[in-house]
Design brief:
- This protein is of the alpha/beta class.
- The protein has one domain: Vaccinia Virus protein VP39 (Rossmann fold, 3-Layer(aba) Sandwich), CATH 3.40.50.150.
- Helices cover 29% and strands 25% of the residues.
- It has a 7-stranded mixed β-sheet with strand order 5-4-3-6-7-8-9.
- It is globular and about 50 Å long.
- The model has no long low-confidence stretch (mean pLDDT 95).
- Bound molecules: S-adenosyl-L-homocysteine.
- S-adenosyl-L-homocysteine binds next to strand 2, helix 4 and strand 4.
- One of its GO terms (molecular function) is protein-L-isoaspartate (D-aspartate) O-methyltransferase activity.
- Belongs to the methyltransferase superfamily. L-isoaspartyl/D-aspartyl protein methyltransferase family.
- Keywords: Cytoplasm, Methyltransferase, S-adenosyl-L-methionine, Transferase.
- Catalyzes the methyl esterification of L-isoaspartyl residues in peptides and proteins that result from spontaneous decomposition of normal L-aspartyl and L-asparaginyl residues. It plays a role in the repair and/or degradation of damaged proteins.
- It is found in: Cytoplasm.
Amino acid sequence: MKDTFKHKGMRQQLVDTIKKKGIKDERVLGAIGKIPRHLFMDSGFIDHAYVDKAFPIAADQTISQPYTVAFQTELMQVKPGDKVLEIGTGSGYQCAVLVELGAKVFSIERQQELFKKTSKFLPKIGYRAKKLIFGDGYKGLADEAPFDSIIVTAGAPFVPKPLLSQLKVGGRLVIPVGDSVQTMTLYLRKGEKEFEKHEFGEFRFVPLLEDKN
Ligand code: SAH
């Protein structure tokens, strides 16, 4: 599990690429520039780690495209110490970005194989989530609510109500909504019952799945 000078150089090029595509937040760019993405993929695929593309990981899932990770993270406006919830731990890459930004991260994954693999892997490379959970993201995590922000990293056919209700007032939910293509959507909780919705461009995610298997 090495991170070499060559990897760092490739990573800097990736940062330049996503900057050109419109990512501005320096802290987000800094996190992408720092995290060894190649370690989140099987070792045979190192050449794919620093191109701006999604890539298959275990259990038919994908590690999201770096631009998409940066885009969603930018919308979350994470501050150090924020309590955040991620739905879809997958490889743990997005989780690492959030940890790097100083967030206390809770992340839920419904595939046991990925949950186990990522639970072992993240601490090994020094990224500690507050808690990784094997469970159903549609329900959110009522025990730990409310959250400063919530990110969904799979395509949701609809917005799960628990996720909206588990936001702090002033909190942000970033969720790609749609079936085959998703619209990146930001919900701002303005009051107990008041939400503001903003839509961004189209993205493609693996589906947020309901009940297991
Ligand atoms: N954030 C991940 C991207 C993973 S892809 C990364 O950085 O690598 C989306 C993930 O969502 C997959 O791992 C998939 O198993 C998971 N997922 C799908 N439906 C889910 C659900 N209902 N609850 C929790 N996780 C879910």
